[in-house]
Amino acid sequence: MEFMRVGARDQETPVVRVGDNHFDISSIVTDIDPAFWAEGPTLVAKALDEESLPTIDVKGQRIGAPITRPSAVICIGQNYVEHAAESGDPAPEQPIIFFKTPNTITGPYDAIGIPPRAEKFDWEVELGIVIGKQAAYLASRADALDVIGGYLTANDLSERDYQSTHSGGQWSKGKCVKDSMPLGPILVTADSIDAHDLSLSSWVNGEPRQGSSTSDMIFPVEDIVFRLSQYMQLEPGDIISTGTPKGVALSGKFPYLVPGDVSEVEIEGLGRQRQEFFEVEVPAGVGADLLLS
Fold it and tell me: Which of 16, 36, 84, 159 meets the CB 3.0–4.6 Å disulfide criterion with 78?
């Protein structure tokens, strides 16, 4: 099944998409949130079989992120050999883990603000995993596949100067700019797609940047979930962003994003995003220059 959320921000309607048709599922689920994964997919499948869901016209409506209120947004760094190399690092022997705050999540076509002091704002097309069942200390990678609820397209937007020069030894400063994690447009349930060989692509101002496949991951999806479960309890609705292939601005081959630029990212079977960037206005007198000097 394919799920979406449409409407104004924080007022989205949950929707299931079947071909060219869209159905409002708000009568049987509150939202596509952590609680959704308990019975939501089963209830929606039953309602589709019974043809009891009302249609909804999504034309002209804002498309929101297809999931809301995760307890965690977990990210895997340098999960493609060539991206690790363009970052100046060897391929990791263990998954590199960092976190983004939930307020980084935004819709796939929303405009994105670049902080006025940001000089190295970068794009990263990534396959996102959505956890469907609580998971801790999983016994096998097969068990890990069983707790994956679905997949979606993610753009892990990153401010590289914050991430490295001002990092203090961690990456989070460069990863947690508000709205820096566009998700969607659709969430596809795990039983409807094979995540092991999907093409990933990105463009900036219409020019190609990244082109790879999830088959090139160092740690595939089930390995990531299995390993993470040994260190933390994963909750339904949690998002794991699985890393990006080569072709980002950090490589030195392309300029970083600036206000007015347009980035697009796409994953086979999971849809294409488009973001236009603008400069965030900071109130007069804000003292961040002292922190960044």
Answer: 84
H helix and E strand count, the chain: 6, 19
Give the number of other CB atoms < 10 A from CB of residue 101: 15
Q: Quote the CA–CA distance of 240 and 23 in Å, as a whole number.
A: 27
Sequence letter at residue 145: L
The CB density around residue 134, as the number of other CB atoms within 10 Å, is 14
The span from the CA of 258 to the CA of 249, in Å, is 12
Tokens of 234: 């994963």
**Bridge partners, 3 (sequence order):** 16, 187
pLDDT digits (tens, 9 = 90+) for 124-168: 999 999 999 999 999 999 999 999 999 999 999 999 999 878 767
Q: Specify burial of residue 169 (Cβ count, 10 A radius: 0-12, 13-18, 19+).
A: exposed
pLDDT digits (tens, 9 = 90+) for 248-272: 999 999 999 999 999 999 999 999 9
Q: Residue 273 has which token pair?
A: 């995003």
Rounded CA gap, 103 and 73, in Å? 10
CA distance 138 to 20: 38
pTM over 0.85: yes
